[in-house]
Design brief:
two-stranded antiparallel ribbon, Rhomboid-like fold, single chain, 6 strands, mainly alpha
């Protein structure tokens, strides 16, 4: 996929990739080592570090997601963002996709800070720093897992669940196997992405169910059926029966004389047989006319018994607004929870620093 195609299909993904690369180029141009940047340089450019992030610099929860520690780190995360973004952004929508990435990155950084803080309180750890878009990318990958599990399609194509599980598994195993990888950031981002994607999938299923019902309603034809019930009395039937039976008897007598013709006669029809056929045909016509007139006459006084049955189509249903807003409400609740979480760690840190002083 070319840059123009990516920009058209997934503009937020393109802008995120451009921001990753642009920030890295700016670091290198200012003298930061491209392969092994120093701690001071990383702190200057917005890395996540417990004393700063949980102190007076909460903005590092976001800025660290755009900062990468070395060229290989940038290439790895850039490829993952390109691979996941071009699928996830058209599926979830650009606005939801961006919110998903940012919240997953914040969730990963918060879990990293929490784990680091607990290890310091237990005397088993020390402050460190982290950077990279891994938390946000893991959140996007987890969201795609939910989409595959719920069989949410993109342009008629359903994601391969096994492939996504394999890719996510590699990232997690790689993080635990290689020292210096922010496993807490990966896990925190993935959990955040799962929760947001569940809300999206539930709302999607509900809206899809309503759309299927509406499609079924639109396919139902409007039925306008007229059902007419006729009833005849014995008095009304008598003239009809006598007329019809008389005509039929005459017809039967004529047919009998016709059938009595010798088999040995010529196979060609003579004048007598032709006349008999003509009489038979006229009798058939007269009988039909008499039946039609009889039905019309008898139906006239009973026209009030005609019943008109029509089935009107059901009204189309509209999906509840709650299902459309569910992903946004979920992200709002997650944001409120993140603010409370940061405040909790922040207060604990201030209390410890106050006790030390």
């Amino acid at each position: 996929m070319t840059i123009q195609q990516l920009l058209k299909t997934a503009p937020v993904t393109t802008l995120l990739l451009a921001s990753f690369i642009g920030l890295f180029i700016m670091q290198v141009l200012t003298g930061v080592d491209a392969n092994n940047p120093s701690t001071e340089a990383l702190l200057k450019w917005g890395a996540n570090a417990l004393p700063f992030t949980m102190g007076d610099d909460p903005w590092r929860l976001v800025s660290s997601a755009f900062l990468h520690i070395g060229l290989m780190h940038l290439l790895f995360n850039g490829f993952a963002m390109y691979f996941f973004g071009q699928i996830a952004e058209p599926m979830f929508g650009s606005a939801k996709f961006l919110a998903l990435f940012l919240l997953a990155a914040i969730g990963g950084n918060l879990l990293n800070s929490y784990v680091t803080w607990q290890s310091i309180l237990d005397g088993t750890g020390q402050p460190g720093l982290s950077a990279g878009a891994s938390g946000g990318i893991m959140g996007i990958g987890a969201a795609l897992l939910i989409a595959a599990l719920f069989k949410i399609s993109l342009n008629g194509m359903v994601l391969n669940l096994k492939s996504l599980i394999f890719i996510m598994g590699i990232n997690l195993v790689y993080g635990f196997a290689v020292p210096g990888i922010d496993n807490a950031g990966h896990i925190g981002g993935a959990i955040t992405g799962l929760v947001i994607a569940l809300a999206f999938a539930i709302g999607y299923r509900q809206r899809l169910a309503v759309a299927i019902q509406n499609a079924a309603i639109q396919q139902q034809p409007t039925l306008n059926a007229y059902q007419t019930n006729y009833s005849y009395s014995t008095h009304d039937n008598t003239p009809y029966d006598s007329q019809y039976s008389g005509q039929y008897r005459a017809q039967y007598d004529n047919q009998s004389s016709y059938d009595a013709t010798s088999i040995g006669q010529s196979p060609h029809l003579n004048s007598d047989s032709t006349e008999q056929d003509t009489v038979f045909a006229n009798n058939e016509t007269n009988t039909a006319d008499i039946y039609a007139k009889s039905v019309t006459a008898n139906n006239s006084p009973l026209s009030h018994e005609a019943v008109h049955n029509s089935i009107e189509p059901e009204a189309l249903k509209k999906p509840s607004v709650i299902w459309q807003l569910l992903p946004w409400l979920t992200m709002l609740l997650i944001s409120i929870g993140f603010v409370w979480w940061w405040q909790d760690i922040h207060q604990q840190l201030l209390q410890v620093l106050k006790a030390i002083e």
